[in-house]
Amino acid sequence: MPPRQIQICDDDPAAALITQRGLQNLLRDRYTITVASTPNAAWLVCAHSNVDLLIVDPGTGGSQASALVRVMHAFRPMTPILILTAYDTPGLRVRMRDLGVSYYAAKPIDFKDLLPMVTSALHLTPIPDTLPTRLHACHHR
Amino acid sequence: MGELEQLRLQVATLERHLVETTAHAEIVEREAALQMSRAVDLGARLSAILSISAALLISRDIDAIVQLVVREAVNLFPGTSAAHLFMTDSEQDGLVLRAANNPAVILTRPSVGLAGKAILSPRAMLLVGPQLDAALSDMSADQIAALRDNLDTWPPLSALLAPLRVESQRFGALILYGGVHAHLYHPRDLPFVQALANLAAVAIDELSQRTRAANLQRDLTLTQSLHAEAQARLNAAQAQLLQSAKLAAVGELSASVAHEINNPLYAARNSLYLVEQDLDPDAPQRAFLTIAQQELGRIARIITRMRDFYRPARAELAATNINLLLRETLELVQTHLRHGHINASADLSVEIPSIIAHADQLRQVFLNIILNACDSMPNGGDLRVKTRLLHARNEAPITIGIDICDTGFGIPPEHRPHLFEPFYTTKAHGTGLGLAISAHIVTQHGGRIMVESELNQGTTFSVLLPTSNI
Predict the structure, then answer these.
(1) pLDDT digits (tens, 9 = 90+) for B138-154
(2) With contacts defined as CB-CB under 8 Å, which chain B residues touch A22?
(3) Class of domain B318-466
(4) Which residues on A lie below 8 Å from B444 (Cβ)?
């Protein structure tokens, strides 16, 4: 069985890399996690493979990201979408909710808050064994 | 003998002359007595008229004036069975009996009845016999019945009528009824009844002018205070607009900084998390790692506070009626519009639902656009405010469209792309923040602001607001 796939769309390379590494750390080799820097590139990947989760940072404008969300709903309606934005505004939140996006997070979210959203979007049951035991170390900040 | 006879004849002639002279003296005496009694009568009437005029001078109430005139009319013409004073009444479109020595109300139309004849007459009249019968026969059965109830004897055999008028203005009529005596009144009474009517008319006119002047003065004072209040409200709103513009400029800067920082902060914070995953629980570096994580957490909290400062607080969001907000804003600038000779019209759709919004901020958006529209029409023009409900696509949210159109000089094409940029202005004393802030507020409400402009034709700003909540 080929590994399942998570697609990240983020034009900030450092942020994209950290999201990728953090998720990879959590999900190990059960998922392939790929990164695209533009919504167009992300759509190309989604169109040609079975992506199980699309994580999108809409950037400053957000119009291309909205188009990506619309096209995903039209052609890949089963793929959950998580918006992970550095430009969180009430307007963006409303727009994304109106487009039918169920998962929305604002940077700089902590991984320990982001990871439960990802597992929920992937319909995974968070099994304590699969989580790094040292995860709890950062809880007492 | 001849001489004696002659003397007798002379005596007889003298005696005849004496008788004639005595008779003449009696006639002259009677005439003198009559003239004397007339003079006394005239004197009495003049002094009555003078005392009436003195009394009218200090009367401050129309009812008091008419009662006085009617009472004195009866005293002035002894034998008068009743005196009526009718006044024109625009509400009832006719003459209304305001005072009688036996009060009741009789309505009549000009030209009908005694009062109708009197008001149309240029001067006082004395009616007797067939003329009086003809005037009474004009009246309806109801009017005659009402009049009959007011008189001791019916029908009256003579009547004195006088119009109440000042220059060309007619106020009413004074009627005196002579009762059973057909020769009670004499043509020489006419100047007196007219003088009485004139006195009454002048007093009533003076009183109504005084009342009108007082009303005008009160209206003027009210208008002035309303004007001052409106101006104060507009000044306060403009000051608030400027203050918010300044605050918002600072806020916008901090918000954009906050957004720019979010990506690197996210990367740095979670990089530490990944490092921590691979670190031995007892590693000495863990202490510094924890400090770094805590400090980054602090930065994140500061950034969130900066961003929230710029965002409308949740508590200030409330159900807002856009039509009401527009009406309030137009009300606020009403004086400004009037002074600028700008005709404002509002076409507000009743379909529009209330939306959850920050009313004060949206009011600022509308105020800003309307004041800009006024600035673009220095010689006056038309300002049109329109609201409508837009159903675009099925999946799209229902949107409220607000159009604010002016007939000003329009926006040159080279300025249009920069309209919503902060600090971009074409006005000598503009801050260049009004439209930037407006656009920001509308965006914060999940909406859009657009502009269409034609040089020398006018400009339309359209604000689109989704009906779904923020």
Answers:
(1) 888 877 887 787 777 77
(2) 270, 273-274
(3) alpha beta
(4) 89-91
